[in-house]
Amino acid sequence: MARINYKLSEKTRDNRLKKQLIENGFHYVEQALKSGKHNYSVHKWYAILLNAKSQFNSSEEQIQNTFEIKKHFQEAIRLNPTDAMSYYFLGIWHYEVAHLSTWKQRITKLIYGESPQSTIREALKYFILAEEIDPGFYNKNMLMLVKCYYELNAKPLAMEFAKIILEKECKTNEDQEIYNEVIQLIPKIKKLKTFKGQMG
């Protein structure tokens, strides 16, 4: 039920309905966790829905949940190290933290004595692991590889994964959105200058 509610929330543009669906999904997975169900899927969906739920909260609450979200993704991977999707979502966590604004970092450190830290390279590591476990399993994972390689100025690798995405058939609206995003990234990737000894 948690997964169904989350998937439905991704399809609607009505923010009130989206919030309700996410809260419903979170309620189911929270109850599962409280009842002692500690399989990888429960931890993964708890983290996914807590992150989604946080988007409707204040900045302080979002920051407060950051460490909790990471902990549950890590536990999901510990319980099932072959679940590519868990690595993808942990990669997203690192990617978002790497882009966390300076003022949010300062607030977190002020309130909690520490702030979440990460880099694009750390995020990339998890997207690569996900792809190694299940090649081509999720277009969004390949999109994140393109984005990370682009930000790391790794032109050949960014182009490699961009071409894979563009050659795939778009079967869903999400596939089409990813395709369009890659199309917009291509000119930026082409402008990258590669240097000797550089990644890619």
TrEMBL record:
GO cellular component term, pick one: mitochondrion
- Record keywords: Repeat included? yes
What is the annotated localization of this protein?
Cytoplasm, Cytoskeleton
Pfam families from the UniProt entry: RMD1-3
Look up and give the organism this protein is from. Answer: Didymodactylos carnosus
Q: What is this protein called?
A: Regulator of microtubule dynamics protein 1
Which superkingdom does the taxonomy of this entry point to? Answer: Eukaryota
Identify the keywords attached in UniProt to this record, alphabetized.
Cytoplasm, Cytoskeleton, Repeat, TPR repeat
Recorded GO molecular functions are:
microtubule binding
Give the InterPro entries listed for this entry.
RMD1-3_a_helical_rpt, TPR-like_helical_dom_sf
Q: How does it assemble?
A: Interacts with microtubules.
Chief location: cytoplasm
